[in-house]
Structure formats: C-alpha cells, structure tokens
TrEMBL record:
Family to which the UniProt record says this protein belongs: Belongs to the glycosyl hydrolase 43 family.
Signal peptide: none
A GO MF term: hydrolase activity, hydrolyzing O-glycosyl compounds
Origin: domain of life: Eukaryota
UniProt keyword terms in alphabetical order: Glycosidase, Hydrolase, Membrane, Transmembrane, Transmembrane helix
GO biological processes: carbohydrate metabolic process
Protein name, UniProt field: Glycosyl hydrolase family protein 43
Listed InterPro entries: Glyco_hydro_43, Glyco_hydro_beta-prop_sf
Membrane-spanning parts: 21-41
Organism (species): Fraxinus pennsylvanica
CDD domains named among the record's database cross-references: GH43_CtGH43-like
PROSITE patterns xref list: PROKAR_LIPOPROTEIN (PS51257)
Gene3D superfamilies: Glycosyl hydrolase domain, family 43
Length: 466
C-alpha cells in the first residue's frame, strides 16, 4: 500500500479544535519549505518542470492537454428485463461487454465503419492531418493500414518515418477450441510517411514461410510486436519480434536484419532470451546507442530487461527483473529529461484493461509505478486505456515532453479489423497523483498523461521545425 505523502495535512484535517491556528500555519509553512527543498534536490522534477513550462506556453499544446469527456451511453434495448435480472442477478452488462460483443448495437462507437475512414487521398480539407482514434485508417492506396502491435522508426538518413507492425489481413480463426483467436502469420508490414499521417505501403518486409513447417515464420506460428531500430555502427536495421507457436509455448524472440528500412529483412534466428520464456516485448535504443530488450517473462508475472550486444543481434548476459509479480505486458518504453518511462497493460488476452505508467532513473531499475496515465473520456474509457493496448511511444526530439502514444484496439472477432489509437502523451509538471509505490528518497516523478481526444492533430510547430 502506498504511504501518505502528507501525513501532517491529513492529521490536521481531522479537525481537532484543541490545535491552535498558529501551529497549523507553521506546520504548513514547514511542509512547504520541506517540499521546496526536496524539489531542489530532486533533479528530474526540476528538469521536467522547466521544459513543461516552456511547452505550455504554446497554445496548441494546451489544446492537446485539454480534458475531453466522452459520454458513451449503454444501448437501451440491451438493458436486462427484470425477469432476466432475477435469473442472473450478478451479471450486469458493462461497456466492456458491449465492446467485446460483435453484435452490440453500439459497435460503431468502438469500430466505426469504412464510411468514416481516415483517407489521405480524399481532399480531407480541414480534417487533413487529424487523428481519429479507432477509425479505419487508410494508406495512400486506399487500403486499411496493416501494422498491428507496431512501432515507428525515424530514419535519420531519409528523414522518413517507418511504421512496422503485424500484417494481419487474413481470416481470424481458433486453432482449437480453447485457443486464442488468431490470424496466420503473413509477415511484418511497413509503411512510410513524412508527416505521420499519410502512410505509403512499403509492402511486407519480412514475409511468412509457406511450406517449411519447422521454420519459425511458418504461417501456423505466431509473430507479434515487431520493432525496428537502426544500428549506427553496423549500418543495419535490426528487427526484434515475439516468435511463438500457436499455443504460445515457444515463447521466444526472433531477430531479423536488413540494410534498408524497407527491407527485405533477413530472418536470423529465435531464442529464449537469457534462457527465459518471453512473450510481449519491445526494444529501446538509448541516447548512448545502447539498445535494450524488455519482455514479459516467467508466465507474464515479471518483466525482464537487459542490454543487447553492440550489433543488436543478440542479448548479453546482463538481465534484471522489474515490476516483479505485477503481471504486466505490452511494454512501451521512452525517455524524457534523463528519466526512463514505460507504459504497460495488464494481462487479459485481447480484452482491454487499465494501463500503468512507470518511471526509473536507471533503465535497469528500480522502476516505480506511477499510476494510470489515461485522462479524459469517462471512467470506463480510462480504465480500458481507451479500449486499447499500448504498443509504442513515439518521441519528438525537438518537442521535448510531447509524445504519440500508440495503441491497438484489438478486434478479436476479426483481428485484421483491429484499430489504431494514437493519442498525445505528455511528460511534465508535478504528478497529479501519488505514485502507487512511494518511498522516501525516490524522486517526485513527473506527471505522465495520455489525453483522450476524439479528434486531434500534432502542433503545426512540429512540422515547421522539421
Ligand atoms: C475550414 O476552416 C476554415 C478556417 O477555420 C473555415 O473558414 C471553413 O469554413 C472550414 N471549412 C469547412 C468545410 O469546415
Ligand atoms: C526449414 O527450416 C529450418 C529451420 O529454420 C531449417 O533448418 C531448414 O533448413 C529448412 N528446410 C528447408 C528445406 O528449407
Ligand atoms: C504446443 O504446440 C507445439 C507444436 O506447435 C507442440 O509440440 C506442443 O506439444 C504444444 N503444447 C501444448 C501444451 O499443447
């Protein structure tokens, strides 16, 4: 359980009349002084506050940080009749049930149809460059983008963004009765963009293997969460991904390389990193060029983190367990003001759950859990990470403090129709809530916030700064 940050305040607020006013005032002043002193020694707090102050002066960023409420009403016809309520008194239909129910009358709220698709080919007029989380997003050829569980690489050499993800444009089925919904491996899709809104399909850059049944990429296996980073020393683009069999018992990572961001990638091998099972995973390249792998392990109970070798093609012997026993997956790691941050989800299969933000001074830990970063929408929206699951957090090096939170709104009934939820994520200012685990001596972490918006766009200054 978390400790109270302001033990004095709560004691006085219980309203003891014997307590003289001057003691209260003195204590409050003392408290404030202590906090001030504390903030002075707490480096990340100061750094982020300054950056935040600088950014907040931009009105467009203020707009992104506006809290937008969402009123999703339960469909009337679905309310249980008194009779059925009697039969099943415990069962109440929730918005999450509606979300998971293919035949829900409010399905269009979670999965808007093709008519509302974001289409960069159409003269979108004032809608141009606007993100609509959850709507179908078309590429420049007019096809829905297939880059699920993905990540974005900014290629310095071509000054182009590349979005890699699972190409899932096939039928969804269950391999066996109890198996999870799946789509055969097709490969890793790649899309390129200069503006992060108009995406050109660069094709499948790592393709499934059709015939060889013992190959990791055989279509009946599993390939999830591909991520690509560039190795400055070798000049190679290195892809890491979760490789599994249909029943998720292989629990390995796979590695592929290419000398071009648009592939084709050459598949090297798979392994269990550090000898452990590895399911949801990501990789992160630090400012100093050292790359790390972060993966859910020990049956998803912990996350493991460790540096990759210099060529990024293997893990080293260094590995730390973090968020031990917390059962987190879908890690997305980023850095701001010298501090590492991570967004994770809970483990509930394809169903959405509550995100948590974590922070650490050293990437290998210890990591502190800050709480749910989601803001706006309504309680259910916040509790379900906007009905989606984290996959990547994209920084803007020249706009410190602003990130794009990338998430997947999975559609387990038809996985190829899963949607993308991109929202602004900001780091800065004082935390709005006490960290879940607070230890005296740990920094006063900055606030990590992901803001719900039905419709939003990146600030113009970002494009001008390019
Ligand atoms: C587009 O925006 C401009 C300026 O804000 C406005 O005058 C115009 O009516 C808008 N057009 C549409 C179709 O909404
Ligand atoms: C099938 O894949 C395995 C594992 O990658 C490989 O060792 C083997 O040579 C492949 N067989 C053929 C016929 O390509
Ligand atoms: C999982 O699948 C593999 C082959 O795909 C099989 O060898 C293994 O026995 C299966 N394990 C379980 C627990 O079903």
């Amino acid at each position: 359980m978390s400790r109270n940050l302001f033990p004095f305040a709560s004691r006085f607020s219980t309203g003891s009349s014997s307590c003289s006013m001057s003691i209260v005032v003195l204590s409050v002043v003392g408290c404030l002084l202590m906090l001030h002193l504390y903030s002075l020694v707490s480096q990340p707090y100061i750094q982020n506050k300054e950056i935040h102050a600088g950014m907040s002066s931009h009105p467009l960023l203020l707009k992104l940080e506006a809290v937008e409420e969402e009123n999703i009403k339960m469909p009337r016809q679905r309310r249980h009749s008194p009779r059925s309520a009697k039969r099943k008194p415990r069962h109440t239909t929730t918005l999450i049930d509606e979300f998971l129910d293919e035949s829900s009358p409010i399905r269009h709220i979670f999965f808007p149809d093709m008519k509302t698709a974001i289409d960069p080919n159409k003269d979108a007029g004032n809608d141009s460059l606007y993100y609509y989380p959850g709507k179908i997003w078309l590429d420049t050829e007019g096809n829905p983008i297939q880059a699920h569980g993905g990540g974005v690489l900014f290629d310095e050499r071509s000054r182009t963004y590349y979005w890699y993800g699972e190409y899932k444009d096939g039928p969804t089925y269950h391999a066996h009765k109890r198996g999870a919904a799946r789509v055969d491996i097709m490969g890793v899709g790649c899309y390129s963009s200069k503006d992060l809104w108009t995406w050109k399909n660069e094709g499948i850059v790592l393709a499934a293997e059709g015939k060889n049944e013992t190959h990791d990429l055989h279509k009946l296996n599993v390939l999830e969460r591909p991520k690509v980073i560039y190795n400055d020393k070798t000049g190679e683009y290195v892809m890491w991904m979760h490789i599994d069999n249909a029943n998720y018992t292989k629990a390995s990572v796979g590695v592929a390389v290419s000398d071009s961001p648009t592939g084709p990638f050459y598949y090297l091998y798979s392994k269990r990193p550090h000898g452990f099972d590895s399911r949801d995973m990501t990789i992160f390249k630090d400012d100093d060029g050292v790359a790390y792998i972060i993966y859910s392990s020990e049956d998803n109970s912990d996350l493991h983190i460790g540096p990759l070798t210099e060529d990024y093609l293997d893990v080293t012997s260094v590995m730390k367990r973090i968020l031990v026993g917390k059962h987190r997956e879908a890690p997305a790691l980023f850095k701001h003001g010298g501090i590492y941050y991570m967004i994770t989800s809970g483990c509930t299969g394809w169903a959405p759950n509550k995100a948590l933000a974590h922070a650490a001074k050293s990437i290998l830990g210890p990591w502190n859990t800050l709480g749910n970063p989601c803001i706006g929408g309504n309680e259910v929206v916040r509790f379900t990470t906007f009905f989606s699951q984290s996959t990547y957090v994209l920084p803007f090096p020249r706009l410190p403090g602003l990130f794009i939170f990338m998430a997947d709104r999975w559609n387990p009934a038809n996985l190829r129709d899963s949607r993308y939820v991109w929202l602004p994520l900001t780091v800065g200012g004082t935390a709005n809530q006490r960290p879940l685990e607070y230890n005296f001596g740990s920094p006063l972490w900055s606030r990590v916030a992901i803001y719900w918006h039905k419709r939003w766009m990146l600030p113009d200054i970002w494009r001008k700064k390019k």
